[in-house]
Amino acid sequence: MGESWHLPSRCTSAVLAWTHRTRRPWARLGRARWLSDKYNLGSLEGLRAAEEAFQTALRLNPSLTLAHNLYTPYQVDRAARWMP
Questions:
Q1: For residue 23, what is the DSSP state?
Q2: Neighbouring residues of 66: CB distance < 8 A, sequence distance ≥ 6
Q3: If you average pLDDT over residues 71-78, what whole number do you get?
Q4: Structural domain boundaries of the chain?
Q5: By the 8 A CB rule, do 55 and 74 touch?
Q6: Is the dihedral of CA 48, 80, 32, 36 positive or negative?
Q7: In angstroms, rounded to a whole number, what is the distance separating the alpha carbons of residues 46 and 56?
Q8: How many DSSP H helices and E strands does the chain contain?
Q9: Mean per-residue pLDDT for 38-66?
Q10: How far apart are CA 49 and CA 62, in angstroms?
Q11: Model-level pTM?
């Protein structure tokens, strides 16, 4: 299962290399990177990559519903890690 999480991230990265202006793949890449890091790596680097992808999607289109829908669980998960 661990390897299967890397495939969406690699595929989405290839799409993003094709065009920087796409918004939805950035949001999906953020989710793929977050879940990959959460269940496999557990590194700050992976979380930073997820955050960067989400922020790029929101910067390109601040009202992109998909980005908000995928970013919210990421934010909740990050906050839950800091709560006692």
A1: S
A2: 24, 27, 28, 57
A3: 90
A4: 2-82
A5: no
A6: positive
A7: 15
A8: 4, 0
A9: 86
A10: 19
A11: 0.70
* Alpha carbon separation from 33 to 36, 54, 79, 83, 84 (Å, rounded): 5, 10, 17, 23, 25
> What's at 36, amino acid-wise?
S
Q: In terms of Cα–Cα distance, which of 43, 44, 23, 47 is closest to 34? A: 47
Find all residues with CB under 8 Å of 77, minimum gap 6, and list them. Answer: 34, 38
Q: If we measure between CA atoms, which residue out of 77, 20, 22, 15 comes closest to residue 46?
A: 77
**Banded model confidence at residue 45, pLDDT cuts 50, 70, 90:** confident
Per the listing, tokens 């909740």 go with 76
42 has a pLDDT exceeding 50: yes
**Under 8 Å between Cβ of 50 and 30:** yes
